[in-house]
Amino acid sequence: MVLIRQATLQDLTKVCHIDAVVLGNTSRAQELSSNVTAGECFVACENAEIIGFIVMDYSFFKQCFIPLLIVHPQHQNRGIGADLITYVESVCTKDKLFTSTNLSNRPMQRLCQRLGFIQSGIIENLDPGDPEVIFYKPLQRNSETD
User: Fold this and answer.
1) CB atoms within 10 A of CB 68
2) SS (H, E, C) the chain
3) Mean pLDDT (whole number) for 55-67
4) Residue 46, Cβ density class (10 Å: 0-12 exposed, 13-18 middle, ≥19 buried)
5) How far apart are CA 1 and CA 126, in angstroms?
6) Which residues contact 73 (CB under 8 A, 6 or more apart)?
7) Is the pLDDT score of 9 beyond 50?
8) Confidence (pTM)
9) Domains of the chain: which residue ranges?
């Protein structure tokens, strides 16, 4: 069973390791440290081992935004990414959730579509020859808790 919780500083080494395995380098380590410190990072754990993580912030026009979703390659295609996004939906305090991915990242695009996200635009010139696709999902909020 997968447990999702807010990352702590004790999780940072494992989060950075998983990111480096997927990315191929440690260039995001400082950014991930800032995300964990700010309470913006959530980890997926299985048998007390961190197997993936997600970062959520409010940097995108003050809306809830997922800038990063990473699942260790040995644990991909098991629904962990969907679980992490669903968890973020539950803790997001806005009624809109945004994320983005490169046009070349078909698995993430399929995940977004499967979870009810709608393509909301494309940004050119971030990565040469690989536009960024923006996705949006309206979230149902209980008006009594807003």
Assistant:
1) 19
2) CEEEEECCHHHHHHHHHHHHHHHCCCCCHHHHHHHHHCCCEEEEEECCEEEEEEEEEEEECCEEEEEEEEECHHHCCCCHHHHHHHHHHHHCCCCEEEEEEECCCHHHHHHHHHCCCEEEEEECCCCCCCCEEEEEEECCCCCCCC
3) 96
4) middle
5) 37
6) 21, 22
7) yes
8) 0.93
9) 2-138
Which bin fits 22, alpha (ψ -120 to 50), beta or left (φ > 0)? alpha
pLDDT at 143 over 80: no
The model's pLDDT over 74-100, given as tens digits with 9 standing for 90+, comes to 999 999 999 999 999 999 999 999 999
Please work out, in degrees rounded to the nearest 5, the angle formed at the alpha carbon of residue 43 by the alpha carbons of 132 and 56. 40
One-letter identity of residue 100:
S
Q: Which CATH number fits domain 2-138: 3.90.190.20, 3.30.1780.10, 3.40.630.30, 2.60.40.10?
A: 3.40.630.30
Structure-block tokens of residue 86 = 């669903």
What's the pLDDT band for 146 if we cut at 50, 70, 90? very low
